[in-house]
Write a structure and sequence with these properties.
two-stranded antiparallel ribbon, mainly beta, globular
Length: about 170
Amino acid sequence: MSGQLSYSYQTPKGIAGSLIDISPYAIDSRINAEVTTGVLKFGMGAMQGDIPGVNVLVPIDTMSIEQFEGVVMTGFTQMHDLEGNVAIPSLATVGVLQFGRAWVRIPDGVEPVYGESVYLIVDGDDAGLFSNDDDGGANLAINGTFIGGPGTGSIAPAIIYNQKPV
């Protein structure tokens, strides 16, 4: 019989891809167009796929800021592997935050502070994560602001203002 063998005595400061509070927000449904399950993750930035307004992808360096859709939010379209890791299946519907306050994924070593600009990393292993550094213009400046320092793990709170005209 198996059982839980480790316990934390601290409440985490947030979960990647979750709302921070109940301030106004907008979340649209999109389809995970990544071919491989687990590439797109909660709290990552998502870009328009081949059908804008329908599907999303992890950013790549050839994409522009106009293709930024928002932040992938936690939801019910997830799978757990035998180790308990969460993965978003290919072709699953995901919620994408257009505007609002959310916990976003940041790379290890990035420590944003209140009021700093938010940049989307579009190249390398950290593509889809957010940073407070434009990396010499390599990262995309999105319309957003960090509203605090890192939470538990590699996440930070941010306000995203990516509302598109209807």
